Every structure is written in structure tokens, then in C-alpha cells.
Amino acid sequence: MYLRRLRHVLSKAGTAWIDDHAQSMGAALSYYTVFSLAPLLLIAISVAGLAFGREAAQGAVVDQLQGLIGQQGARAIQDLLRNVSRPSEGVIATVTGVVVLVIGATSVFAELQDDLNRIWQVSTPRRVSTWWAWLRTRILSIGLILAMGFLLLVSLAASAAFDAFAAWSTSPIAAWEPLVHGINLALSFALTTALFALIYRFMPQATIEWRDVGIGALVTAALFAIGKTLIGLYIGKSALASGFGAAGSLAVLLAWVYYSAQIFLFGAEFTWAYAHAFGSHQERPAAAPADAAARPAVRFR
Fold this sequence. Notes:
Layout: H1 2-19, H2 22-52, H3 54-84, H4 91-119, H5 130-168, H6 173-202, H7 210-237, H8 240-243, H9 248-277
Helix pairs in contact: 1-9, 2-3, 2-4, 2-5, 2-9, 3-7, 3-9, 4-5, 5-6, 6-7, 7-9
């Protein structure tokens, strides 16, 4: 019974993924992500760096990215972070730099919200002010960026705790490596699931329950864990970087972001399908529309 339900939701999500032109949405999302990546990571690193130092936080991020997109892609992001974090001269230049940094970091979330609204069939009512909608999206984006920084802080704290335990333990470190590695993987999976749940819950302008996004975030995190390995193998085995010459690092980064965006969007479609099949948006025969093929409307939040 459970497998039959899962197949139904996956089939519905796949159909919706095609109908919503997720490939085009992923391309636009990748464009905004590449230009927002450096300021976004810089703010998250700054939050985590309050406790562990900026260098430690940045090193942890670069190490994680190197495992995902290879040395070339990680080096490209490191160069972006170095250029963005370069100090400005003068008060006006500093204030301008901070404003540009925040706008750049939140731009990707604005595109993300548009994509999720499209998936949830949300149309903004006319009574909502354009400026207020823009400001609300930016404030929400900053909150999610701070949440990313907090999750990075938790990850660094856990790593520090594991290192302290290894130093305290009298047993050989090799004996604890499988356990520590497993705990690290479980923690990384839990943090990724939490981040997806926050985005799926708060970014769309629709009424969505936690029980809807919980399953969707869990499935998306699992797909992301599998997908990042396959993407890494593809990038490593293909001649993608060498084929673009000097722009090879950017090509690798774009490819990784694009395929990751497709996984994220499919997870959003899965969340939508689950919510309408078994969650808070479950269709009831009495309220069924005349056109059975029509996707149900979503309440505006």
C-alpha cells in the first residue's frame, strides 16, 4: 500500500515537473544562483564565523564544495568569496557594498519564490503592494540566509565536538572513524532536510502545513544526497572543464548548480503532489473541480 502511494506521488510529481517546464525554471534559477552564490555564502560564513572564526567557517564551506564540484569549482567559489569580501575604502563605499551584498544574496530567493509560486499555482492578488511583496521577499530571504549560517554553525560545532572526542579518547582514532563518519553523514542529511523544509514551508505564498513539507524535504534531501554523487561523477569523468578552457571552472559550477536546481524543483513538485494526495491540500470528491485534469488552486497567504 505504501509503495503504491509513493509511486502515485512520484508519478504525479514527474508529470507536474514536465508541465511546469522545470528545465527552464532551473536554468533561470541557476543564473541567479551563480551571481548570488558569493554574497550568500559570505553572509552565512560571517554568521558562523562569530563563534568559530571566519577562516574556519570558510574553510569548512570550501571543503564541502570541493567534495561536491571538484577542486576547480571550489577554487572558483573561493576566488569569488575573496573578491566580494575585499574591504572598501570610505563609509559611503562600505555602506554601498553592504547594500549591494544583501541585494545580491537575496536575488536568488526572489527567483526561488517565483518558481515555488508557479509550482503551487499561486497568483498574487492585486491588493498586495508590489513594494511590500518585494520587501517581504527580501526580509524572508535574509532570514533564510541567517538560518543557513546557523546550520553551518551547528555543523562546525559538531565537527569540533568530534575532534575533541577523538583527542580525549584513549582508543585509536581509526577505531572510531566509521562511527564518526556515519554521524557526520547523518548530521549533514538532517541539516539539509531542515534547510529544504524551511524553504518549502516559508518561501511559497501559499498555505502549507509542516506535515506537507516534512516528507517533501526528506525525499528531496535523499535525492540530493544521491544526486550530488552522480553529478560529481559526471563532472569528474566528463571533459566539461577542459572543453571550456579558461572558463572551465565557471562551466563546472554552472553544471553543478543547474542539476542541483532540477533536484530541488522536483522535490518541490513532490511536496506539492504529496500535499494534494495525502496532506493538507488533499482533494475531496465534494470539492472536486469540474475538470478532473485541472490542478487545484492554492490559498494565498
